[in-house]
Amino acid sequence: MSRLIAALAVALLLSACATRFENHPLAAGQSNVERRTVDVSQPNRPLVLVAISGGGSRAAAFGWAVLSELRKYRYRSADGSMRPLTDDIAVISSVSGGSVIAAHFALEGAAGLDRFEPDFLALDNTRTLGAEAISPVRLVTGAARSDLVEQLFDRQLYGGKTFAALNQPGKPYLILNATDMASGQVFAFTPQRFDDICSDLDTQAISTGVAASAAVPVAFTPISLLNYSYAASTEWCRQRALPAWVSNRLDPKRLYAPYLNVDQFRLARYVNDLRNGPNPFRRVEHVYLLDGGLADNLAIHGLMETVASPFGAAIVAPPAGRGGPPQTVLQAINEGRVGKLVVIAINSRADPPNGIYASPDRPGIIGMIQSVTSLPIDAASADVKGQLDALLAQYKGFTGAPAIYDIELDFDQLRASDPAQLALRDEAKQIPTLWTISKPDLEVIEKVGTVLLQQHPCFRRLLGDLGIPADFTQPGDEYARNGCAQVSDRH
């Protein structure tokens, strides 16, 4: 491993600085078309939203393990068929290592889960990247280090396919999250965001979106996008009207707008900057993207936008027989069209014990760097998750609200009072954040995924409410009822 690290360091020093912009402009007068819709036509079906955190191959493996476990559980749908829970995943938001499995699932569906292990998890991707980083061809051509990651993803998982293959009816709405390194804003690979930079998402390689989401600073170069809203070759882009919600929040006559919701105000200002709108705060002529975990390592922003924003990107078809424009998920919830809302946050955060508490020596520069690059990210991610929890708790207080199953899966939920689970917890937390995971570590993650899902009270409550039998549940499960209370319990 020390040789590999040395090789990567040499490659870092020898890297060229030429910039290759990865995106293409929209055709004149065109916009990115959204072909997917969230299906809420049958309220008996759960609406499942999934977030998969960062954490290298550990995160990809944890996401894969949980999705594989979900696939096992089937309920009888209104048409009489047995429907797996994975078919109800409508939105999947991800960052960093979690984006590898999220994009693969969105592209291949549950049928592709069996191929993910041999095609990615079983391979020594770290060694492959290290060998390619110091190859003579790469050093001569000066290819960016992120190019290596894109090529690896295409070779092993995505086969050069573009977002056009994801943006199809019946596919889950995928939100790959990166971080705009200049502003710190979340930059998602969605039709809405690519409209903002007047760029064609359909022609964008899936591997580019995943690599942007996983571009760990220093180790990998930023993914570079050209903002065609500023380019001289696409002057028509500057003639587009701003989205109404942006214009309303930035209306100079509404001096009180920043005080109503400062986060929405900042987001509107960011969209205005990307679109080269009037009086931009920043001229965003180029966008450089780094690991999405820098802004939100739990990928919760995508889910928050889905369930809380009237401007959410995920759209819902209007009720049968009723015309009008598509709705957002928030509108569908408010109209009572969602019977069961399931939110699954898969958190592969690992914080193995270190020697700082036991050492009388003041921590050195390496220890300080490790702290300042991990603790603020974890704290910010926990804050965003807390906002989502508070929102879902508010929904539970409304009459007519959907049944809500808030399922967060975290290594710390393994029970310290159970020796077997305690051992699993400590083993899981020791798994390094690399692009490789060993076979024993993968087996640990598989066990963790099964245990955490099966013992989560809201998952057990969901199975009971859907009539799905399982040997770890029982009729009238008080553990599930007390741990996952619903509005209906009051009546």
Describe it.
With 491 residues, the chain is an alpha/beta fold. 43% of the residues lie in helices and 12% in strands. It contains 21 helices and twelve strands. The protein is globular.
Molecular shape: globular
Class by alpha and beta content: alpha/beta
Unreliable segments (pLDDT under 50, ≥5 consecutive)? Answer: 1-8, 11-16, 133-143
Our measurement of the CA-to-CA distance between the termini, rounded to an integer number of angstroms, reads 60 Å
What is the average per-residue confidence, as pLDDT, rounded to a whole number?
A: 86
Number of helices: 21
Q: Tally of extended strands?
A: 12
Descriptors:
alpha/beta; 21 helices; 491 residues; two-stranded antiparallel ribbon; eight-stranded mixed beta sheet; disordered N terminus
What is shown here, in short?
The protein has helices at residues 2-14, 56-70, 96-108, 113-121, 125-133, 136-141, 145-158, 191-196, 206-213, 244-250, 257-260, 262-274, 293-296, 300-308, 329-334, 365-372, 375-396, 419-429, 439-455, 457-466, 478-483; strands spanning 46-52, 74-76, 82-84, 89-95, 173-180, 186-188, 223-226, 286-291, 315-316, 327-328, 340-347, 403-410. It is α/β, with parallel strands linked by helices and 491 residues long.
Write the layout of secondary structure elements.
Blueprint: H1 2-14, E1 46-52, H2 56-70, E2 74-76, E3 82-84, E4 89-95, H3 96-108, H4 113-121, H5 125-133, H6 136-141, H7 145-158, E5 173-180, E6 186-188, H8 191-196, H9 206-213, E7 223-226, H10 244-250, H11 257-260, H12 262-274, E8 286-291, H13 293-296, H14 300-308, E9 315-316, E10 327-328, H15 329-334, E11 340-347, H16 365-372, H17 375-396, E12 403-410, H18 419-429, H19 439-455, H20 457-466, H21 478-483
Parallel strand pairs: 1-4, 1-11, 4-5, 11-12
Antiparallel strand pairs: 2-3, 5-6, 5-8, 7-8, 9-10
Helix pairs in contact: 1-5, 2-3, 2-4, 2-19, 3-9, 5-7, 7-9, 10-12, 14-17, 18-19
